[in-house]
Amino acid sequence: MSTSPTHAADWRKSGATLRDRVVTAIALAAGFLAALFWLPPLGWTALAGAILAVAAWEWAGFARCANAGRLVYAAVTVAGLVFAAHAFNLATGAAGTITLMPVYGLAAVFWVVGAPLWLARRPANPPAALVLGVGWLVLLPASLALIHLRNLDPRSLLLFLAIVWIADIAAYFVGRRFGRHQLAPRVSPGKTWEGLGAAVVATGVYALAWIALARGASPAVVRDVPWSPVWMLALVAALTALSVIGDLFESAMKRQAGLKDSGGLLPGHGGVLDRIDALTPVLPAAALVSLV
After folding, report:
1. Are the beta carbons of 237 and 203 closer than 8 angstroms?
2. What is the dihedral of CA 84, 88, 91, 97, to 10 degrees?
3. DSSP for 196-256?
4. pLDDT tens per residue, the chain (292 residues)?
């Protein structure tokens, strides 16, 4: 069967995009793993601050800020992280205390209540101040949790991150191959119910493998109770659902700002926010669970 020039061009473009995604993902994974296990606490805090700076710069674009405004917002946001990391003694490698729970609790309330309401109402032109304020709710607790969880146990942080990565990979490939029913057509037309189902199944299998093979690196709240595999399944399912909300919320913010990607820093992936969107709700929730 012959292929039209248009279809051939589309196929080549799709292949190039996937190749860029894979190459970038491998490079990011290698650099991240090296930093996760080898950087000292202060270096890890600096890395979290650098990621936050770029993410905040991109987020200010959702509020249609000019470059000067984006720079100020990024600087203030990073200053907030530095202050919090010092106040909670995280930059020195401390494990953190229950004083962090209100920060993560506020983030959890936003992701469970605020973000779904935003997605349901889809404000077309929210005030810039509101968008920037929401950015702090999204970015600062996640950045703190990134430092906090690594201080607790780098293995646990990696295992929590893997939930999002597995869900994303399963949803991407199954959605592309079998996706027929759109999950949120007005927010992100490319996401499908079939992809979501694949993500839930894949992370469910992962949850059982985690509790069976790396029980010591699982949260005590599910490790030290009867029927721990069931509770681990419930926890991972909840975190998978949060990752989907985070992904959809960032897509909604891009859509209202008229943007396709949050930035162009990462070939095949868009901006930093496009890579960490699903992590922004998962990290504070994981840190909150780890404190219980």
Report:
1. yes
2. -140
3. HHHHHHHHHHHHHHHHHH-GGGS-HHHHTSTTHHHHHHHHHHHHHHHHHHHHHHHHHHHHH
4. 334 343 344 434 444 466 766 777 788 788 889 999 999 999 999 999 999 999 999 999 999 999 999 999 999 999 999 999 999 999 998 887 889 999 999 999 999 999 999 999 888 889 999 999 999 999 999 999 999 999 999 999 999 999 999 999 999 999 988 989 999 888 888 899 999 999 999 999 999 999 999 998 889 888 888 888 999 999 999 999 999 999 999 999 998 988 887 776 666 567 889 889 999 999 999 999 999 8
**Under 8 Å between Cβ of 38 and 51:** no
| 3-class DSSP assignment, residue 95 | coil
Which positions ≥6 away from 19 have C-beta within 8 Å? 268
N- to C-terminal Cα separation, the chain? 60
CA separation for the pair 283, 292 (Å, rounded): 15
CA distance 90 to 106: 19
